């Protein structure tokens, strides 16, 4: 049971952080040369699909992570790296929720209204926040996978 939970947990992390890496480091730079009127709909479409996956990944991370913690004696008995993972995880979840409900919403409204400059500004905010979440996510993966072997 524990093996399946940790495997599911790792899969959800791979999908979220791998997707962020692709969006920030590959797709956005590749689309940078396109005119705004073509780039924004493409990025908006890609983000809409990705954000759905992120909501599912967050639910899976929370359920599997907390079940493993519960099965191993609760947070009081959890090693430091699990506390760090959970703490940074909550910062990442909050940042993602902010992205989804603020700049992402503004971007879609502006795009639908044809105000490309506003949509571009909101997309820029999304890029910065996605970069921060990617950096945090990479740290969490290092902490979560190396922690059991004494990394921290
Ligand atoms: C509510 C938040 C979270 C809790 C309670 C939690 C809990 C846990 C626990 C108990 C483990 C097993 C540790 C061990 O094997 O000793 C684990 C492993 C791991 N977690 Fe988390 N976690 C959380 C969030 C996250 C997030 C946000 C990520 C990355 C995006 C993440 C990535 C990982 C990785 C990569 C592993 C290692 C899996 C492996 O052993 O291959 N976790 N987590």
Tell me about this structure.
With 152 residues, this protein is mainly α. The chain has one domain (2-149). It contains five helices and no strands. Helix 1 (2-31) packs antiparallel against helix 5, helix 3 runs parallel beside helix 4 (103-113) and helix 4 runs antiparallel to helix 5 (116-146). It starts with a helix and ends in a 6-residue tail after the last helix. 23% of the residues are buried. The mean pLDDT is 97. Residues 6, 9-10, 13, 16-17, 61-62, 65-66, 68-69, 82, 85-86, 89, 92, 137, 140-141, 144-145, 148 line the site of protoporphyrin IX containing FE (HEM).
Helix count, DSSP H or I runs of 4 or more residues: 5
Radius of gyration: 17 Å
Summarize the helix and strand pattern as letters: HHHHH
Based on helices, strands and strand pairing, what is the structural class? mainly alpha
How far is the N terminus from the C terminus? Answer: 26 Å
Protein name: Membrane protein
Transmembrane segments: 6-27, 48-68, 80-101, 128-151
Domain Copper resistance protein D: 46-143
InterPro entries: Cu-R_CopD_dom
């Amino acid at each position: 049971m524990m093996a399946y939970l940790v495997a599911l947990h790792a899969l959800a992390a791979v999908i979220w952080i791998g997707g962020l890496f692709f969006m920030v480091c590959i797709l956005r730079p590749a689309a940078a040369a396109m005119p705004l009127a073509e780039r924004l709909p493409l990025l908006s479409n890609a983000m809409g699909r990705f954000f759905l996956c992120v909501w599912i990944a967050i639910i899976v991370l929370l359920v599997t992570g907390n079940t493993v913690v519960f099965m191993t004696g609760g947070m009081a008995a959890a090693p430091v790296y699990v506390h760090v993972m959970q703490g940074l995880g909550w910062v990442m979840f909050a940042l993602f929720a902010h992205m989804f409900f603020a700049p992402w919403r503004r971007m879609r409204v502006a795009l639908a209204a044809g105000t490309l400059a506003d949509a571009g500004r909101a997309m820029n905010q999304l890029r910065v926040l996605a970069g921060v979440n990617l950096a945090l996510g990479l740290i969490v993966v290092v902490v979560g996978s190396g922690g059991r072997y004494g990394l921290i």
